[in-house]
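Propose amino acids for all 228 sites.
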């Protein structure tokens, strides 16, 4: 950890892909659309159009955008749009995801070291609560924070700054932990510290400031933080 960075008091965790394994949802989307790239294309559309909403001062929750992105995916692949009931079945899977194997040991290590833990996700509160309950992670966090009340999606700087303010911690004393380069870039540019979890297939954004910490697992990040 850079000597110029203070030990953070608050850790904010991204949820989808960082804490939760999206493999079950990925398999279902790929099978339904008969393409090994369908899930990645759908998830990219979901993120892209969440940013369209934010930059145009519009707002639909993540589930609504996910539903629309399934229609766009079908169109892009030259397929028929899925019935509303089928789309609901696919989207429901995001609330039934297990944590990555390193998550519980990593969260325990953070707790034992005295860090405050909260989530910060683009998912709406109802989805977030179901996700955390299903994964057995609720009790590790003092707050389950979502961008929904602000109605701006990460990586808009206000999402990070408002959460820090709500939890009473200065941005410089807060650290986002995420497996997405766009998310760590957003946090760093908002004045937070950031730890990039290098999940398979995820990359840092080379034109953003370098993350404060980089590790392959939450346990790896925890070891680096605890040693400070």
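Proposal:
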């Amino acid at each position: 950890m850079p000597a110029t960075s203070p030990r953070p008091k608050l850790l904010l965790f991204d949820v989808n892909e960082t804490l939760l394994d999206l493999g079950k949802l990925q398999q279902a989307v790929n099978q339904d659309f008969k393409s090994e790239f369908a899930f990645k294309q759908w998830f990219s559309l979901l993120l892209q159009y969440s940013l369209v909403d934010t930059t145009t001062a519009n707002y639909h929750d993540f589930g609504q955008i996910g539903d629309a992105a399934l229609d766009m995916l079908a169109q892009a692949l030259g397929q028929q749009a899925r019935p509303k009931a089928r789309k609901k079945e696919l989207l429901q899977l995001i609330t039934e995801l297990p944590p990555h194997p390193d998550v519980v040991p990593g969260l325990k290590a953070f707790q034992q070291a005295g860090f405050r833990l909260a989530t910060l996700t683009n998912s709406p509160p109802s989805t977030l609560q179901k996700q955390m309950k299903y994964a057995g992670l609720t009790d590790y966090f003092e707050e389950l924070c979502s961008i929904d009340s602000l109605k701006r999606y990460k990586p808009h700087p206000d999402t990070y700054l408002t959460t820090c303010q709500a939890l009473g911690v200065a941005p410089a004393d807060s650290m986002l932990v995420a497996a997405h380069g766009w998310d760590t870039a957003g946090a760093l540019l908002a004045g937070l510290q950031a730890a990039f979890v290098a999940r398979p297939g995820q990359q840092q954004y080379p034109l953003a400031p370098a993350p404060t910490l980089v590790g392959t697992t939450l346990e790896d990040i925890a070891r680096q933080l605890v040693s400070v």
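The chain has two domains: 10-21+97-226, 23-95. Strands lie at 10-13, 116-121, 143-146, 174-178, 193-197, 213-215.
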